[in-house]
Amino acid sequence: MKKPELVIMAAGMGSRYGGLKQIDPVDEQGHLIIDFSIYDAVKAGFNDITFVIKHEIEKDFKEAIGNHMEKIANVKYVYQDLNNLPAGYSVPEGRTKPWGTGHAILSILGTVDAPFAVINADDYYGTHAFKTIYDFLATHEDGDKYSYAMVGYSLKNTLTEQGTVARGVCEADENGMLTNITERTKIRKNGDGAQYSEDDGKTWTDLNPDSIVSMNLWGFTPSILKELKAGFPAFLDANLKTNPLKCEYFLPTVVDNLIKAGKAEAKVLTSLDKWYGVTYKEDKAVVVQAFKDLKAKGVYPEQLWDR
Q1: Mean of the pLDDT values across residues 142-162?
Q2: 40-54, 136-150, 178-192, 274-288, range with the lowest pLDDT
Q3: Would the CA dihedral through 104, 221, 4, 125 be positive or negative?
Q4: Residue 286: how many CB atoms within 10 A of its CB?
Q5: For residue 307, what pLDDT band results from cuts at 50, 70 and 90?
Q6: Residue 11 CB: number of other CB atoms within 10 A?
Q7: pLDDT at 279 over 90
Q8: Cα separation values, 78 from 55, 104, 109, 111, Å
């Protein structure tokens, strides 16, 4: 059985800030959130890291992150390209938005052929999450069904005070196996609770703040790649007609479809850690304080890496 690898979706990194150079460090030592994730991942056993990036940010990305990570782990790069479409399809005129997380992971086809975990570059997952997913990947293989896993978080631990977030809301059976995942693209905090909207904020529906949500921390066998490839044309056929400029091929939706088709099962591994991320610039002060507190508790050293 091959050793688990880590895939980091970083193609969207910098887009919110207008470029990587504008991404602010989250501590006085100059670390980014991704530094803490990789520190935790390497500690958990991941030695091979594949970054999914865009060609446009390659130079800045390597200067800010990639070059010093190459001293820590075996690093590979793949590129999420808007034009990477099946034969017979083309990018709709005026489209600049990437094709989503499913398309990002499809980019690693031919580069990664071992069990792998997936994370977002700009989310903080907590120390336990990486150990949990590594141990799962190291001990599970596909059987009658594909054997996948996700680390789920309590919705209330993933909300921002600043605005709305997108989350995959999960349901599991009594054995902790994922039964349903619904992509909610607009969730907001509402006092001690939460609400979601499906009509761009015109109406809001209450959502249990203790709901388990996906933060795109998944564990897969390589079988997911052939399924992503097989499902992409059908996604394009269905969505290019109705939403050509903004439709996204969501990774959780593909997993949900495979579960419902009886082809896959996914274990929900829950994390009690609080998620941190800079969804909005105003989130930064909260994140900076969080890492200060984690260092004070001895969770991290002051300096993660020799640069």
Answers
A1: 94
A2: 274-288
A3: positive
A4: 14
A5: low
A6: 27
A7: no
A8: 9, 9, 9, 8
What are the residues whose beta carbons fall under 8 Å from the beta carbon of 278, sequence distance 6 or more?
24, 26, 33, 122, 284, 287
Is the pLDDT at 273 greater than 90? The verdict is no
Contacts 24+ apart (CB under 8 A), 187-191: 187/155, 187/159, 188/159, 188/163, 188/164, 189/159, 189/160, 189/161
SS (H, E, C) the chain: CCCCEEEEECCCCCCCCCCHHHCCCCCCCCCCHHHHHHHHHHHHCCCEEEEEECHHHHHHHHHHHHHHHCCCCEEEEEECCCCCCCCCCCCCCCCCCCCCHHHHHHCCCCCCCCCEEEEECCEECCHHHHHHHHHHHHHCCCCCCEEEEEEEEEHHHHCCCCCCEEEEEEEECCCCEEEEEEEEEEEEEECCEEEECCCCCCCCEEECCCCEEEEEEEEECCHHHHHHHHHHHHHHHHHCCCCCCCCCCCHHHHHHHHHHCCCEEEEEEEECCCCEECCCHHHHHHHHHHHHHHHHCCCCCCCCCCC
**5-58, pLDDT tens digit by residue?**
999 999 887 776 666 766 778 999 999 999 999 999 999 999 999 999 999 889
Q: Is-above-0.85 flag for pTM?
A: yes
**Amino acid present at 35:** D
Taking all residues of the chain, what is their mean pLDDT, rounded to a whole number?
A: 93
